[in-house]
Description:
The complex is a heterodimer.
Chain A: H1 2-29, E1 30-31, E2 34-35, H2 38-78, H3 82-92, H4 100-110, H5 116-123, H6 137-161, H7 165-173, H8 178-206, H9 210-215, H10 224-232, H11 237-267
Antiparallel strand pairs in A: 1-2
Helix pairs in contact in A: 1-11, 2-3, 2-6, 2-8, 2-11, 4-6, 6-8, 7-8, 8-11, 10-11
Chain B: H1 2-31, E1 33-35, E2 45-46, H2 49-55, H3 60-92, H4 98-106, H5 114-127, H6 133-157, H7 161-169, H8 174-203, H9 206-212, H10 219-228, H11 232-256, H12 259-264
Antiparallel strand pairs in B: 1-2
Helix pairs in contact in B: 1-11, 2-11, 3-6, 3-8, 5-9, 6-8, 6-9, 7-8, 8-11, 10-11
Amino acid sequence: xxxxxxxxxxxxxxxxxxxxxxxxxxxxxxxxxxxxxxxxxxxxxxxxxxxxxxxxxxxxxxxxxxxxxxxxxxxxxxxxxxxxxxxxxxxxxxxxxxxxxxxxxxxxxxxxxxxxxxxxxxxxxxxxxxxxxxxxxxxxxxxxxxxxxxxxxxxxxxxxxxxxxxxxxxxxxxxxxxxxxxxxxxxxxxxxxxxxxxxxxxxxxxxxxxxxxxxxxxxxxxxxxxxxxxxxxxxxxxxxxxxxxxxxxxxxxxxxxxxxxxxxxxxx
Amino acid sequence: xxxxxxxxxxxxxxxxxxxxxxxxxxxxxxxxxxxxxxxxxxxxxxxxxxxxxxxxxxxxxxxxxxxxxxxxxxxxxxxxxxxxxxxxxxxxxxxxxxxxxxxxxxxxxxxxxxxxxxxxxxxxxxxxxxxxxxxxxxxxxxxxxxxxxxxxxxxxxxxxxxxxxxxxxxxxxxxxxxxxxxxxxxxxxxxxxxxxxxxxxxxxxxxxxxxxxxxxxxxxxxxxxxxxxxxxxxxxxxxxxxxxxxxxxxxxxxxxxxxxxxxxxxx
Lengths: 268, 267
């Protein structure tokens, strides 16, 4: 009986997620006459650089999001000034639910040659000639960090806030500095939450089409761009599916690292 | 002395505020810039000409906004209709293979969405669903389902057993107890998940891009085509229309989602 209540939603997930995902795998391996690796050869041959750029962009963004959310979470947990903590907690959440495409459009103005970022830097004394457009892979990284940082911070700062304060206080009483407490006491206990937050961010960013479309579509770009190009301009589903499978494999690799770490933690 | 100790903190916070609000400020500036050409650091002419153009009743933006809201409402309805029973069963019934089912709902989050959407579009094309409102509603509902089930399940799980038991002891049937006790107590969490699904649909780009375009032109698609056509003003105004609900939701969500519900997501 309870199973009947779950069945319709399982059906939806099956029909609109699992089935198309299987189609994608099948499409990637099927040629005109039987299974083939030709689509992967095409994908590798044409889009090797895009794959590297995708890993570079998502990797950089994930690293920056990790560093930023740990810093913000750490200050919210250990920071000395109550007022600064309140301001920071109020500040960091704003982009949380802003859609990627809006983030992309905002950043297209902000990071451009005569955008507000350069205006602010020039106003602060940077020579005018240094003003350059960030609308390339760096712009994509910055947009991803801006959009995903609140999400990761919410998860990580939440886990830090739920920690037992006694341990932190004990370490502080023994004379440990704040950085020492953060690295030695807080981080080991929230490491699992950090991995979850970062992996979810990584997967999300891998699948985003709108940000690279808006910021910089120049080749090589993120894999979503050639995928869309293969379909909309060439009707070539085979190569697009091969690229899709490769994107899934990349995230699979990351998830594997995560599972291995979780298993190692359980073994402790 | 104390002012000096505050300086680095204030400087860092101001920098961070610039990073958070700078892009949005730039968006606002573009929306009222009637002309802004390089190398001008700021617009050379301000005005609301483009706002008038966008908000003209017969304009494309209003049509897209109406369509987007209609699609989001239908998607939310469809999504919650299947998500609420599932969430209740996952949270409160003894369900065999509960962990596995929860994991299945998490699966769409574990893969990049693009390959899934292009193949849905392909299937929809052969079914004649491509470029229809129904097609877009179906993908949006499926996309939102994952969040809806997880959040609503957490909301149901946070309802105290004693309250339900008390109702049952006083003779209420299972359905009456659900309707009069469980559902009202879980309502804030469920409302939050419904709003979230609505927003996700309103903001959704990739699936609409493949399934809906060019016939079903939602607001994000309009934003993209304005931006691709180099019309920064219309793109900025469209982006601002999409921005408002997200920020309002961010501001009120804490009221809906209590900390104990949030802590229970995924348990």
